[in-house]
Amino acid sequence: MGHVTVLALRAVLLAGSLAVQTVMVPLLAGDLDGLGERYAPLRTPLLVIVVLTVLAAQTVLICVWRLVTMARRGTVFSYAAFRYVHIVIGAFVAAALMVFTLGALLAPGEAVAPGVVLLVGGVGLAIVGIALVVLVLRMLLAQAVARELEASRMRAELAEVI
């Protein structure tokens, strides 16, 4: 990848992450202050879920940042990349659990329509699907690393013969 592409990706990731942290979470906290007494106990769990989900997203962004850097350097097909891929999978699973928890919090009572709870569950399933796609990509990375190691071994043997 080109240097300009990597810089643009990093700028977009950093700006989006900071915007969510500094603007969206405080705005949500302010909006939740307006909940009626009946729904006031949901305020803290909702904020915790949002903050943890943002943290999971930032974790994914940082790992993608590191993987892009490794790709630019040509070292992505190594065992070091697996650490970041594993963290990404874990972050997606954690985000899915947070979304399912959000759905469970919203389900009882009449705070939101049942269709909204169903949509939240669908978002959770989509996030699990993304985690599964990353898991498949991890398997492809494992095959690529194995082939790279085999090619290196064969090059070394060929160099000995020559």
Quaternary organisation of the protein chains: single chain
Describe the sheet with the most strands: none
Helix/sheet category: mainly alpha
Poorly predicted tracts of residues: none
Distance between the termini: 34 Å
The Rg value, from CA coordinates, equals 21 Å
SS elements, strand count? 0
Name the helix and strand elements from N-terminus to C-terminus, one letter apiece: HHHH
Helix content: over 70%
| Average pLDDT for all residues | 85
Strand content: under 5%
Distinct helical segment count: 4
Q: What general outline do the C-alpha atoms trace? A: elongated
Model description:
- Helices cover 84% and strands 0% of the residues.
- The protein is mostly helical and 162 residues long.
- It is elongated.
- It has helices at residues 3-32, 43-73, 80-106, 114-161.
Topology:
Blueprint: H1 3-32, H2 43-73, H3 80-106, H4 114-161
Short key terms for the protein model shown above:
162 residues; single chain; mainly alpha; 4 helices
Short description:
The protein is an all-alpha fold and 162 residues long. The protein contains four helices and no strands.
